[in-house]
Amino acid sequence: MASIVDIHPHVISTDTVRHPLAPLGGTQSTWSRDRPTPFEALIAAMDTAGVDKAAVVQASTAYGHDNSYVAEAIAAYPKRFTGVFSVDMLAPDAVERMRHWLGLGFSGMRLFTTGSTMPGQQTWFDDPRTYPAWQYAGRVGIPVCMQMTPQGFPQLRGLMERFPPVRIILDHLARPTLVDGPPYAADRDFFALARYPNVYLKVTPLNVTPPRWGKASPESFFGALIEAFGAARIAWGSNFPATAGTLADILGNAKAAFGFVSAADRDFIFGKTAQTLYPKLAD
């Protein structure tokens, strides 16, 4: 059976002396305050759920650009973890910082341009000062996760055309509208990104269990995703523990939502696509 790989869990240390809080925007996320989850607890949850490996994503709303705790997790479990770091792309030393974290076992980068503690779509990510970092990401072949909304798609398209080697992963599918149902006219710009072969999709509980489906359904929406992008460009992420509940339940909900697809497509969504993006997680 193919490995199950999670490309969107977080870890939060309970030791705020060794790992002080420094959230982006100055406000810590509620989930990281209420559900701190050390990496040992993540491993235990993975073992219970049957998740083999994970690309641990930097918790920007707890630690900002200090990726030290994720680096500690990778060092402790190098055969099960890689990491997705965050850096200040506007800083003159951005490339140097990227090189530093990659040397500690990270395999990707994440740009936090919107979120619960930083509402609205930030516009800094296509500032010319970020170009050296984008160029470096393309040269070394690391994917870049975009925590963003569709309002940022025009800028994203410009960046992808300027830096075509860079693979982009849309966190939470960039929060599509969903509720109008097929043919998903409100999400036209999102589906149009399928023409860029370097765009990958990260499906999380925000998409699997949205507040409401409206005229949509898991079968119609995820079926449209697979038809447009292909399962080889779709990967599952748990968002654990930002999403409440057990990792086993989160994975079970995702498997149920994709229960209608072929076994081959499920293998990609729950493992093989992740291993393409993060070769350190290969079997």
The secondary-structure element order is EHHEHHEHEHEHEHEHHEHH
Alpha-carbon distance between the termini?
11 Å
Categorize the overall geometry.
Answer: globular
Unreliably modeled segments: none
Q: How much helicity do the residues have?
A: 25-40%
Number of extended strands: 8
DSSP helix count? 12
Tell me the structural class.
Answer: alpha/beta
Percent of residues in beta strands? 5-15%
Biggest sheet, spatial arrangement of strands: 1-2-3-4-5-6-7-8
Global mean pLDDT? 95
In this structure, how is the largest beta sheet organized? 8 strands, parallel
Radius of gyration: 18 Å
How does this structure look, described?
The chain is α/β, with parallel strands linked by helices and 283 residues long. Helices cover 37% and strands 12% of the residues. It has 12 helices and 8 strands. Strands 1-2-3-4-5-6-7-8 form an 8-stranded parallel beta sheet. Strand 6, helix 8 and strand 7 (199-203) form a beta-alpha-beta unit.
